[in-house]
Specification:
328 residues; 5-stranded parallel beta sheet; binds iron/sulfur cluster; alpha/beta; two-stranded antiparallel ribbon; 49% helix; binds zinc ion
């Protein structure tokens, strides 16, 4: 049987969740339009920006960098920088960092790499040999910490991440399963409870005198691929030659997220559009969630002065535990 695209006479490359089949060129156009529309719809990028792209060298971050680079070429007031974190995961991160560096070299984008070893004294692999902790828990805490700190030091106006619709769907479900609805209130295409660039117009918790200054220590994180599925991002990355190999962190398979991902993929297979439905319904209640939790207290970590929910931040707590374990 001769399968035709719905867009033209070219061979179909991908079947979208709507059932529409698109050829390579029409899919690329569809995908880029979707990302630009998401940026407009959620007001993710202003007229003048010094954007940082959190680059891992994987398909998501390379795709978002590639598309924002196109946006920046059309608008000289938008500057693009790339930041990568080297956690120190043998046999994995070295490969993806090389892909990231090659990509940035070709596009003349400056890539700054910050490592756990330099910043915290140990690689993630070494930390996991010392502490009995879930790899993604400690890794995620240190990565978010470093990305925010370095973005602020580099005076980036926003930090762009490659999170896609599947990632968001997993996060929503994981928070539900862990009864952590406040974490869900921080999700969405713009991360956090406060829109940082309008920080002066926000109401702040009256119990902390310098709340505004603390909120300013957060660099706004944005997710332009928010409405793109994992399948769409993977297809875009490969057909546009952004990467030719697929690498997955060896720790990912053991994570809670990987199990939730499998459940969602199974549901999507049986009930197409499940993921869209979860994210779309979540977007309807998100403003209420943000409103509900906007007065949460944010403090400054007593040890490192980074923003924290407690007197001492999670990163400093882990650094302390690592130091004690090494001494023992
Ligand atoms: Fe870190 Fe887990 Fe991601 Fe691996 S999968 S890079 S351990 S958060
Ligand atoms: Zn701290």
């Amino acid at each position: 049987m001769n399968i035709r695209s719905n867009c033209c006479n070219e061979k179909p490359l991908i079947s979208l969740h709507s059932g529409e089949k698109l050829c390579k060129n029409h899919f690329t156009q569809y995908f880029e339009n979707k990302v630009f529309k998401t940026i407009r719809q959620f007001d993710l990028v202003g007229k003048e920006e010094n954007l940082g792209i959190a680059l891992s060298g994987g398909k998501d971050s390379l795709t978002v960098l590639h598309i924002l680079y196109k946006l920046a070429k059309q608008n000289p007031k938008i500057k693009i920088n790339a930041i990568a974190i080297d956690e120190g995961i043998e046999g994995y991160r070295d490969k993806t960092l090389k892909t990231a560096q090659d990509f940035c070299d070709k596009s003349s984008i400056q890539l700054r790499i910050f490592s756990y070893k330099d910043e915290f004294g140990l690689d993630l692999d070494e930390m996991l040999n010392i502490l009995d902790v879930k790899p993604c828990t400690i890794c995620g805490i240190f990565r978010r910490y470093l990305l925010n700190k370095k973005s602020r030091e580099l005076k980036l106006t926003r930090l762009v991440t490659g999170h896609n619709l599947d990632d968001e769907c997993q996060s929503i479900l994981m928070n539900q399963m862990k009864n952590n609805i406040e974490a869900s209130a921080r999700l969405g295409p713009k991360v956090g409870l406060v829109n940082d660039e309008n920080v002066g117009n926000q109401r702040f918790p009256s119990t902390t005198e310098n709340s505004e200054a603390i909120y300013r220590r957060f660099v706004q994180r944005i997710k332009p691929l928010y409405l793109c599925t994992e399948k769409e991002v993977t297809t875009y990355a490969f057909v546009n030659g952004l990467l030719d190999d697929f690498n997955e962190c060896p720790n990912a398979v053991h994570s809670f997220r990987a199990q939730v991902r499998d459940i969602l993929n199974d549901m999507e297979q049986k009930f197409p559009s499940t993921k869209y439905s979860i994210v779309n319904s979540f977007l309807q209640i998100l403003p209420l969630l943000k409103q509900q939790f906007k007065d949460g207290i944010i403090k400054v970590c007593a040890k490192c002065s980074e923003p924290s929910a407690n007197d001492v931040c999670n990163a400093c707590n882990y650094i302390e535990k690592l130091k004690k374990s090494v001494v023992c």
